[in-house]
Design a protein that fits this description.
It is a single chain. With about 375 residues, the chain is of the alpha+beta class. The chain folds into 3 domains: about 120 residues, Rossmann fold (3-Layer(aba) Sandwich); about 150 residues, ATP-grasp fold, B domain (D-amino Acid Aminotransferase, Chain A, domain 1), CATH 3.30.470.20; about 70 residues, 2-Layer Sandwich (Dna Ligase, domain 1), CATH 3.30.1490. It is built from 12 helices and 17 strands. The protein is globular, with a radius of gyration of 21 Å. Bound molecules: adenosine-5'-diphosphate (ADP) and magnesium ion.
């Protein structure tokens, strides 16, 4: 019998999207075929502590009492396995748990989707699902991401990056700068967040002020954008060097915009798959999604989200999520299902891609030998 692949599934995390990560991870854990994979659950608490054990997901979700161990990953290639930390006679002892063949980071937002965690995997020399350090951090920062899109002639709405520290020092000047982007409505968002946390639609200067203040709670970099009346079109990308793209889907939120409540608590938002677009619009938006993925050196997966102006039908690239939601009702797996790839097959494909990328990394020489 061949050895099963040891797969570490990492979830929770120090992020405003901790709970969403748990929902996604539960589905990923259920979809992993136990005949093929040996699953190692690794949960990260909101404080950033790592835990491992048979049912970490149950502990983080419902607080089930469990025998769990604290766990660590070391940033050294020679020690690329998970260690548990045990206390013995007042001393902390590390116990190697055996190697991991691949890690699936089912983490959304800061310290998971933003390149920091990917940096640890790189240092530890572990194969991992999804984007590398660069694409993760560029995909996470809505400001730098839009700068890259502009450089590649991919349309985005008018925007500007503002700094919290400057806003606090001189709010009137920063609000003037924000108003120079466009007339109202304006959207304000933290540059590094997700799930619509801290996102506000502002109709006047008073709302702008309150929005900048609230968004400042979540990041030191803030984005102000022209608010448009838009349809929300999303596509899934899968692959490394030659990625493929799904059919487009559309979200019709019943709320005024696709807010945190609308995303996770209000079941009345509608998903239309495929999005009712013309053939020409479909092909166009698919090409933009692939170009965006390649522009940031994406890998593995991404969900690419567009705003389509209701009046002009112009497509604007809104954001690219390198670790999209993975619940069974999430757009990313749903789009693949409708494109012919069901959820377990999608997870298999992502693991394959992670291993492929790891293999490719091994071909790179890290030192320069002048004698050769
Ligand atoms: N410029 C904009 N014009 C109109 N609606 C917007 C704009 N920016 C964001 N929105 C609305 O806010 C939601 C959340 O913003 P988004 O940039 O996607 O952040 P998040 O990473 O939190 O999903 C979008 O899905 C959309 O409904
Ligand atoms: Mg979004």
């Amino acid at each position: 019998m061949s050895e099963k692949l040891r797969v570490g599934v990492l979830f929770g995390g120090r992020s405003g999207e901790h709970e969403i990560s748990l929902l996604s991870a539960r589905s990923v854990l259920q979809a992993l075929d136990p005949e093929k994979y040996q699953i190692v659950q690794i949960g990260i608490t909101k404080e950033g502590n790592w835990l491992t054990g048979a049912d970490v997901i149950g502990f983080l979700t419902e607080g089930n009492a469990q025998s769990l161990s604290e766990a660590v990953l070391l940033p050294m290639p020679g020690r690329s396995c998970l260690y548990t930390v045990q206390e013995r006679d007042g001393e902390e002892i590390l116990n190697a748990l055996g190697g991991l063949d691949v890690i699936i980071p089912v983490l959304h937002g800061t310290y998971g989707e933003d390149g920091t965690m990917q940096g640890l995997f790189e240092l530890a020399d572990l194969a991992y699902v999804g984007a590398g350090v660069l694409a993760s951090s560029v995909g996470m920062d809505k400001g730098v991401f839009k700068d890259v899109m502009v450089a590649r002639d991919i349309p985005v709405v008018p925007y500007r990056v503002l700094l919290r520290g400057v806003f606090e020092e001189d709010p009137e000047r920063v609000m003037d700068q924000a108003e120079s982007v466009s007339g109202y409505p304006l959207f304000v968002k933290p540059a590094n967040m997700g799930s619509s946390v801290g996102v506000h639609k502002c109709r006047d200067r008073a709302e702008l002020s309150a929005a900048l203040e609230d968004a400042s709670r979540y990041d030191r970099r803030l984005l102000v954008e022209k608010g448009i009346e838009a349809r929300e079109i999303e596509l899934s990308v899968l692959g490394n060097q030659e990625p493929r793209v799904s059919i487009p889907g559309e979200i019709r939120p019943t709320a005024e915009f696709y807010s945190y409540e609308a995303k996770y608590h209000d079941q009345s938002s509608e998903l239309l798959i495929p999005a009712p677009l013309t053939e020409e619009e479909t092909v166009y938006v698919q090409r933009l999604a692939l170009r965006a993925f390649k522009a940031i050196d994406g890998a593995g997966m991404a969900r690419v989200d567009f705003l389509m102006d209701r009046e002009t039908n112009q497509m604007y690239l809104n954001e690219l999520n390198t670790i999209p939601g993975f619940t069974p009702i999430s757009m990313y797996p749903k789009l693949w299902k409708e494109s012919g790839l069901d959820y377990p097959a999608l997870i298999d494909a992502l693991i394959e891609l992670a291993l492929e990328r790891r293999k490719d990394k091994d071909r790179t020489v890290w030192t320069y030998d002048r004698g050769k």
